[in-house]
Amino acid sequence: MTARAAWRRFAPHLALAPMLGVALVAYLGSTLWTLAVSFTPSRSFPVAGFAGLAAYERLFSNARWLLSLENLALYGLLFVAAALVLGVALALAVDRVARGASALRTIFLYPYAMSFIATGLVWQWLLNPGIGIQEAVRQWGVAGFVFDWIVDPDRVVYTLVLATAWQAAGLVMVIALAGLRNVDPEIRKAARLDGIPAWRTTVSIVLPMIGPALATALLLLLASTVKLYDAVVAMTQGGPGTASEVPAKFIMDHLFGRANIALASAGSIVLLLTVAALLAPVMIARAHGRSRLGGR
Amino acid sequence: MRARAASFLLAAILCLAPFATRASEGRPADAPRAEVIHWWTSGGEAAAVRTLADAYRAAGGIWVDSAIAGSEQARSVAFNRMVGGNPPTAAQFNASRQFHDMAEQGMLADVDEVAQREGWERVFPAPVLEAIRVGGHFYGAPVGIHTPTWIWYSKAAFRKAGIEREPRSFDELFAALDRLRAAGLIPLAHGGQSWQDNLVFSAVLANVGGRDLYLRVLRDREAAAIASPQFRKVLLDYKRLQSYVDAGSPGRNWNDATALVISGRAGIQIMGDWAKGEFTLAHQEAGREYGCMPGIAPDAPYLIQGDVFVFPRTRDPGVQRAQRLLASVVTSPRTQLEFALRKGSVPVRSDVEVSRLDPCAREGARLVREGSRQIPSVEMLLTPDQNGALSDALTTYWNGARPVEKVQRDIAAALAE
Lengths: 296, 417
Description:
The complex is a heterodimer.
Chain A: H1 3-37, H2 54-60, H3 63-96, H4 101-113, H5 116-127, H6 133-139, H7 156-181, H8 185-193, H9 198-209, H10 211-226, H11 230-235, H12 247-255, H13 261-295
Helix pairs in contact in A: 1-13, 2-13, 3-4, 3-7, 3-10, 4-7, 7-10, 10-13, 12-13
Chain B: H1 2-24, E1 33-38, H2 43-58, E2 62-67, H3 71-83, E3 90-94, H4 100-104, H5 112-117, H6 120-123, H7 126-132, E4 133-134, E5 137-138, E6 140-146, E7 150-154, H8 155-161, H9 170-182, E8 186-188, H10 194-218, H11 223-226, H12 229-242, H13 254-262, E9 266-271, H14 276-281, E10 290-293, E11 302-310, H15 317-330, H16 333-343, H17 359-370, E12 374-376, H18 378-381, H19 384-399, H20 404-416
Parallel strand pairs in B: 1-2, 1-3, 8-9, 11-12
Antiparallel strand pairs in B: 3-11, 4-5, 6-11, 7-9, 7-10
């Protein structure tokens, strides 16, 4: 092997080395650091010392943390389903529109481009029973109209689903639309010639064909479920009471305001394990799909 | 193309601007230079912090302002810069246990020299001294006192409801709230955020429970006191107040609740004396459009909290000099008065002439001077972690249907952390 050929083989690895370094230090390193801190008795600052599983014990005897996990599960289920259904429906609709598709795409993607700290505030006003939708409908003449989910501890999580699904649906739409554009129009024509109804073609042929795109969308939705924070801060601040608390907010509160970084670190590790458990099946399925395609 | 050139020029000017101001101050190169992190960013607050900067300049120093919006954000920046080895000269904290961890870790410089020279122990109220003293040393220079549990009421709303005089007991308060409701008004303006739920609780504990119970529960964290029937009564009265808020209360900001009182749509709000700034902005005057009461009972304890500057430890003698000068300037009688006038707070020193303050602040200053009714605020007594756990328990109780016995156990567990 000549020196030049060796260099050719070596160069790409060299180019990727900084990226690898960043990934190792910033991601893996921080994760290990967090794991280490979670076993210490740290309060405001990281300190050495070993406290065993004390932080984890406190975490799982903390009513607010347990409620946060419950909320996240309920929220995640509804949010992912709503965003997927809404996004795919929008994509199918936009795909059939002959004119103005790109304008529609921009409009539907717009919520995703805006910070939730701003749009969350607007949602808060809309949902506030005193000044929002409820009051407006009452003034239109529907006297007994009630829409006060945001102040109802049993329903407040649904308002988070409503607002964040509105935001994420545009992203799902764009991804699904990209998939749909790769579906050969001849397939629909052929199916129509065979007398298969359009909805059946969509469900049984087109959707499975854009499966990889939908898996990508699912991955992104699951990730944004777990890191749900800004919507809660902007809309409910975790209230009424602790009814809409989520794990990320618990962690942030304890990291700074409550000066208990051991507990916050323990929470982060639990959250990371949850993410891993949620994402692993999706990743495996995707890798499986890819290797099957590659094998063909 | 021209737009791009213009924006380059603008960027260049913005980059140079800090140097320009520094050069134009015309100070000698060795003048004490203080970079101060604080979270006073609203209109009145910014005016107040300017008086500190002016006083520091007048004393021969250079003031470098690092305003960061949001108290938690500002504190975490100060924290992170200290840990990262690039500390500011001084950082604002609440007069509380927020900075005690840092003092114990040896990360703060003490200001014992200034404290002794200026006789802090003679002129500062005891709760403030307790808050700034860790292990026998002074670690903070107090700037102003705030009291979280003032009671504000709309005179117009009281007239409309036919309430003739200020309530002087909790029974009278509940009667007044009933009359306000009967008059079709929101009886209690409340922002349903956990810190405000916590604030109302400390007002009820001080007024209904009294000084003794307050200290036994929050300072001594005594299990028997938390389980006592007196404390149960406090919790029940607290929960009863919740029945007087309107449906839009959860999540509301404190100043939006104050706006309800200002407009006369609501009768009463329990809030810190920073609420006064909202009334002033709306051109209302204490005693004319609104009333302020430091407590319900005539001898109710007066809660003390406030802001201090802490000084990250350094070996640089120049920075140490700047820190000592700052500690001395912000605690001088003149600065304290000017600051309080703009901030709506009360001077920490008891030897300040307060006739220029508004009636509410004068009343507060009288109580600070008298001493017998002072009591430390919740955050002075509890660690941030304990206070947070207490908040969680209280806000769950306030917003839900949790039985009071369980809440007593929740609070005992929260304070045991």
